[in-house]
Amino acid sequence: MDKYRASAHESEILPNLLGLTDATAIGLAEFEGFLRADIVLTEALMPTTKFTLNYLLEMHQLALGHLYAFAGRYREVNISKGGFTFPAARFLPASMQQFEQEWLREPLPADHNALLDRVGAIHGELLFIHPFREGNGRTARLLANLMLEQQGYERLRWELIDAAAFPRYVAGVQQSGLGNYAPMQVLMRTLSPG
User: Fold this and answer.
1) Do the bridges between strand 80-81 and strand 84-85 make them parallel or antiparallel, or are there none, so unpaired?
2) Which residue among the candidates 9, 60, 66, 130 is catalytic per the annotation?
3) What is the spatial distance between Cα 184 and Cα 171, in angstroms, rounded to a whole number?
4) With pLDDT > 90 as the criterion, what percentage of the chain qualifies?
5) Is 112 a catalytic residue?
6) How far apart are CA 58 and CA 81, in angstroms?
7) Residues 6+ apart with CB under 8 A from 189
8) pTM of the entire structure?
9) Which positions ≥6 away from 44 have C-beta within 8 Å?
């Protein structure tokens, strides 16, 4: 399994609170945590729910707090994936404050296409920043689904991002970091059931 790495020498198995040493067991524990978080957050979702930095941190803690001591906190290590280096950890608090100010403070639009565009930009920005040590993609996907559900729309069909579509997804994240949200917004529309 190709995990995000803080350095080339770091083990693929992240230290965890359950003492798991098998990648499959860790993957299952992560899956169960995100499933539990999805259920809890969906049941608690209200029209007045505010998607803030605290909400994101609590979401991450709820999903991975049983497994990782770093859950619910910004990463303290620099990470890269596939030759792409994510923004440095030391800038995360400022980057996330700017993210909240630019993307989370405004009410979500009610129009489906405008909402998909907004969710696409938020998704791309959040993944580009990559604030967590583990679970960034799943946190961002859950956030996108909750934003859509809050406005009365169906969840995105993330399963459509298969091996063939994944390079477009990664390119959309990278373009989002440059302020070009169109690739991710187009992708969000293809993932929308209606």
Assistant:
1) antiparallel
2) 130
3) 8
4) 90
5) no
6) 25
7) 113, 116, 120
8) 0.92
9) none
Residue 27 to residue 37: CA distance in whole angstroms: 15
Dihedral sign computed on CA atoms, order 2, 37, 59, 69: negative
Distances (CA, A) of 115 to 33, 91, 122: 27, 28, 10
CB 104 within 8 A of CB 122: yes
Could you read off the pLDDT of 44-103 as tens digits, one per residue?
999 999 999 999 999 999 999 999 999 999 999 999 887 888 999 999 999 999 999 999
